[in-house]
Write a structure and sequence with these properties.
The chain is mainly alpha-helical and 49 residues long. The chain has two helices and no strands. It has a domain of 31 residues.
């Protein structure tokens, strides 16, 4: 039984660290918006049937 408790405690610690990392990323990282231009070759747009 102590081994199961130790395993569950380890899993809870790992999940807590992942959750804390996600919260820190949401809080401290501010994404920047920018305009995106994608060039499409005319051969792909004007295909003849």
């Amino acid at each position: 039984m102590p081994t199961l408790f130790r395993f569950l405690f380890f899993c809870a610690v790992v999940v807590g660290m992942v959750y804390g990392t996600m919260v820190a990323l949401v809080t401290f990282v501010d994404p920047t918006e920018r305009e995106v231009t994608i060039r499409i070759p005319s051969e792909r747009v004007n295909k003849d049937p």
